[in-house]
Amino acid sequence: MGVVERNGKVVLRVVEHITSKMLLKMLHEYVDKENTLVMTDEFIAYKAFDKFVERIAIDHSKGFSKGIVHINTIEGFWTIVKNSTRGQYLSVSRKYLPFYLVQAQYIYNRRNATHDLFEEFMQSAVSERKPFLYYKPTRKVNEIVYRQKPKGKC
């Protein structure tokens, strides 16, 4: 799931199932609720937003947009992700999906950069700070990204 500001940055989360609780967590974490008009489609889980922020729901059965009232920004981002994965990879596995999305988010959020991105990358690569130098996952990638139901009694 993702949230994007028009002419701004995108933030993504990999989830197994989208729920109102998860959507609200992203809303509270990334959206300035006082000064924002949120536009969504009519997915029922977005109804929970109405308590916290002004929201307009786009009814796709009546068309996709009316002037500035649209969700084309996030839909356009997902199109970029789908096309880039089709063009770049033979297949997209669930196991590595978070890594594909991090790459897409990184590229999208730097699309208007006025400096040399390759130079930024190289500076980062040779910096003294190497947070992943000795990184070893504590569990399998699937277990880290996709929460597993606890085994045993319910």
Describe the structure.
The structure is a single chain. It is built from 5 helices and 6 strands; from the N terminus they run ββαββββαααα. The protein has 154 residues and is of the alpha+beta class. The chain has one domain (2-141). The protein has a two-stranded antiparallel ribbon with strand order 1-2. A two-stranded parallel sheet has the order 3-4. It has a two-stranded antiparallel ribbon with strand order 5-6. Helix 2 crosses helix 3.
Spell out the key features of this protein.
154 residues; alpha+beta; two-stranded antiparallel ribbon; two-stranded parallel sheet; 36% helix; globular
Q: How many domain regions?
A: 1
Radius of gyration: 18 Å
* Unreliable stretches: none
Straight-line distance between termini:
28 Å
> Quick one: how many beta strands?
6
What's the pLDDT, averaged over the residues? 83
The side-by-side strand order for the widest beta sheet comes to 1-2
Order of helices and strands: EEHEEEEHHHH
Largest sheet: 2 strands, antiparallel
Q: What fraction of residues sit in β-strands?
A: 5-15%
Structural class: alpha+beta
Continuous helix count: 5
Estimated helix fraction: 25-40%
Give the overall form: globular
What's a concise summary of this model?
By secondary structure, this protein is α+β, with helices and mostly antiparallel strands. Helix content is 36%, strand content 13%.
Give the SSE map:
Blueprint: E1 2-4, E2 10-12, H1 20-30, E3 37-41, E4 54-58, E5 65-66, E6 69-70, H2 72-88, H3 97-109, H4 117-125, H5 141-145
Parallel strand pairs: 3-4
Antiparallel strand pairs: 1-2, 5-6
